[in-house]
Design brief:
Two copies of one chain form a homodimer. Chain A is built from 20 helices and three strands. Chain A is mostly helical. Chain A has two domains: 3-97; 168-498, Neurolysin, domain 3, CATH 1.10.1370. Chain A has a three-stranded mixed beta sheet. Chain A is globular. The relative contact order of chain A is 0.12.
Chain lengths: 502, 502
């Protein structure tokens, strides 16, 4: 073993030391969401903070700095993946290093308080309860943006926490044509007289049978239950709580068949991504997953592009009919149309894949203006409602179904929302590439042979984990920078058919 | 605030810093036992070790040493509880301090390996698989005994990890008369022709209804579900995973009504003890709970002295009959006799309260001889079987139902078993005192008013947590050192009646 290899091994060891605490932290978080008794919340925030801080300390230690410094410009012997990993870790290290530990600790505590306050404010549907805590967090964001640095826009300082390699300008280049194309397209769909009949998805569906359906779908897409499980949570989520332990959670709505099933498949997509990482990366676990856009592309790909496709339902519909015999009287086509209903909604997580990006853009624009200091926290409810009217044509009746609906800001996540939009774009771009490379892809899916696609994703996307920045990987795999084109084509083609627009 | 108070506050802060990691550790352990998917085990041991080591480091830090040193001989201003806490923490600190961190780390890793190996060995019922790992752990025990120090017997070096204030000699003073009195008494019970009819407890009892019964019993004894929960585990257990979060787990045997119910009440007793700690002690959380004898006295008290008493069933039997109507045809007296059947068993955890201590004594004698080096690990199966024959008159057919039955040794716990016997003794001695101080105690229990007893325990036992050593608290509350007398009287009186021995 030469010197560089020895250093690389040391780097992995140091990453592993940090990963142990980050995995423990994610278990604490998973438990809080899913298993913790209500009274147990007291004191939890302090346990979190201690465990998280320990991971952070190890990741930003002088030892880590030394290893990275010694590796710099000295990596030619290593294979390309290892070189890329070093580059990414170095970028992450430099970024984390600029935040003084005390500030990070104060931020973690503020987040934890804010999260509790947000829960109460949402329950009471009163933004003014949350306002001071949110102002506090925005204050942290201003500090962070300055510490991280940026060229033109302070929001650029925050984006790389969730999606390195993307700037506000990049986003605007996507958003402007997207708004221009999508708003009239959505209007044309809504005005169509021949709408899908969503009512066929309503009724009473027992939790037991819905669970059975979700488990079946997750098995079909290839999620490994030996290294995972499916629980119930107030918000669906995926948690990697160990190097071989990636858990999903969904939520059951008894009067509607769709939410649990598609949330399960969505989280299953996240789960497959985590389960498909190269073994080299098992003990590379950070506070957040870098390139959330890529992560989200995997969940949205399985939920929407596969999970709401006609090909998928050609083989999966009989399985659903076995579990819920009432669907034996409903034609596949009607079912397929029903699960692809487009309807502007007040709530982001209840929305369809067509209007989803409009919700994201609204949040992005508010965040950017907040971080640039162009608007004030107190103006948020009004601004929110105004944009909802403009983009989606609907207006929230209260804060709970408006500005308070999402947990993200209370978790201190600013710059996170755009990754959902990027996820949609990446997914469409990747799927188009997969179809080009595997011409029989949709036929295989229609036969239930999903492993063809999973293997392609494993090889092209999953195994690399955080090694690539999102736009980098997209270029690598598809030969093109992230672009609106594929998603827009996908949406227009699919929904023109469903809504009979010629 | 004077200087001593400031120092005491610092002590609590330092303890809290360590407690955060120990709580996180206990959550990892709880999760592994109860929720973790099988494949998730890989890597878990390393996450444990990291989190545990962090708690250990904080607990044994120089900062801790300094605070304790400064407090020494300088505590008169503090109230007695605070003084006692300092004394106990100091003793624990001194004890932990003698183990070099590297040795502790190696031990934690060895335990984790041994536990996996034990599971396999037990499954295959082959002691030889476990033998090398056990030998390894006994080797650690020899090192620990020397490091901890002892006067006469190396086993005395280990006992204080679980029951400070007790020596091997103390135990032998209890064990010798116990064997002498108990073995012939058990024989006389077994020879009685008019035995309880255990068959009435067998049949098919759904998990759902058994769970309902367990929840009802736990509510009745006062366990707080807002700060806890009841799960299913392969071994029943209690886990304090946060300052306000104490969880129970039981196991369901579908063909037998008794195991789940009494395991639930048993763990409920542990849970009540943890939930009853003085708020001062919420953030005092160590690797093990000091005085496991006291801890066990609380579980055994509720399981046996209360939970298997005629008074308890006078009010609780109708509740059981509501859940399982088949018992409407069975007289209370027959039910009461059935749940108090005495039958020498091969398996410690399946045994009755009368013969239980014989199982404990067997393990104690083997452990003591192992640690003294009088016997070798390879001799264990034979010795085990010989003693089973001698004390209980039954002989295991294989290692799984013999020497491999308990998990304790694989967890590196030597000196633990005697705390079960002490728990029985303490429970009887405490209950006798409670009856003396609350003459109407048994009538109140028979009316379902268990809070009278819980309040007494809260005040006399629970709130002190680890402040007292077991024997210290027993003397404080009962006016007498731990003694065999009360337990033997309790057993002889109760079972002479049940078995009609005059």
């Amino acid at each position: 073993m030469n010197n560089t290899e020895r250093l690389f091994k040391k780097l992995l060891e140091q990453l592993k030391n940090a990963a142990k605490f980050y995995y423990a932290f994610d278990l604490l978080e998973w438990d809080q969401l899913i298993k913790m008794p209500p009274g147990g919340a007291k004191g939890r925030a302090e346990i979190y903070a201690a465990v998280n801080t320990e991971g952070f300390k190890l990741l930003t230690s002088d030892k880590m700095g030394e290893i990275l410094k010694k590796l710099k410009g000295n990596v030619e012997n290593l294979n390309p993946e290892k070189q890329l990993l070093i580059k990414r870790i170095n970028a992450i290290y430099q970024r984390l290093k600029v935040v003084p530990p005390d500030l990070m600790k104060a931020f973690n505590e503020a987040k934890s308080r804010a999260c509790t306050i947000w829960t109460e404010a949402k329950k009471k549907s009163d933004f003014s309860i949350f306002q001071p805590a949110l102002k506090d967090l925005v204050g942290f964001m201003h500090q962070f943006a300055e510490l991280y640095g940026y060229e033109k826009n302070p929001y650029d300082g925050l984006l790389p926490s969730f999606e390195p390699g993307i700037t506000t300008e990049d986003l605007k280049k996507i958003i402007n044509p997207l708004l221009k194309e999508l708003i009239p397209f959505v209007r044309s769909l809504i005005e169509q007289p021949n709408k899908p009949d969503e009512k066929i998805l309503k009724g009473h569906f027992s939790e037991r049978l819905q669970r059975k359906l979700s488990l079946e779908a997750l098995k079909v897409i290839g999620y490994n239950f030996n290294k995972g499980r499916l629980d119930i949570a107030p918000h669906p989520c995926t948690a990697a709580v160990g190097p071989e332990d990636v858990r999903l959670a969904t939520r059951f709505v008894l009067k509607d068949l769709a939410p649990a099933l598609f949330a399960s498949i969505h989280e299953g997509g996240h789960g497959l991504y985590e389960q498909g990482k190269d073994p080299l990366l098992r003990w590379v676990k950070l506070d957040t997953d870098y390139s959330l856009g890529l992560h989200e592309s995997q969940s949205l790909m399985w939920e929407n592009i596969v999970g709401r496709s006609l090909s998928f339902w050609k083989f999966f519909y009989p399985k659903l009919q076995n579990i819920f015999p009432r669907f034996r009287n409903i034609a596949l086509k009607d079912f397929y149309r029903a699960i692809n209903t487009v309807k502007p909604s007040l709530i982001r997580i209840d929305t369809d894949e067509v209007t989803y990006n409009l919700h994201v853009i609204l949040r992005f624009e508010i965040e950017e203006a907040l971080i640039k200091g162009e608007i004030k926290v107190k103006d948020l409810p009004e601004l929110w409602n105004k944009k909802m009217k403009e983009y989606l044509g609907v207006v929230p009746k209260n804060d709970a179904e408006g500005v308070l609906q999402d947990i993200h800001w209370s978790l201190g996540c600013f710059g996170y929302f755009p990754t959902y939009m990027l996820g949609n774009l990446y997914a469409a771009q990747l799927f188009a590439t997969a179809k080009r490379e595997i011409p029989e892809l949709e036929e295989e899916i229609a036969k239930g042979n999903l492993s063809v696609f999973l293997e392609w994703l494993r090889m092209k996307v999953h195994r690399f984990g955080l090694i690539y920045e999102g736009p980098e990987l997209i270029r690598e795999v598809t030969g093109e920078s992230p672009t609106l084109k594929f998603w827009l084509d996908y949406i227009k083609e699919k929904y023109s058919k469903i809504y009979d627009i010629s």
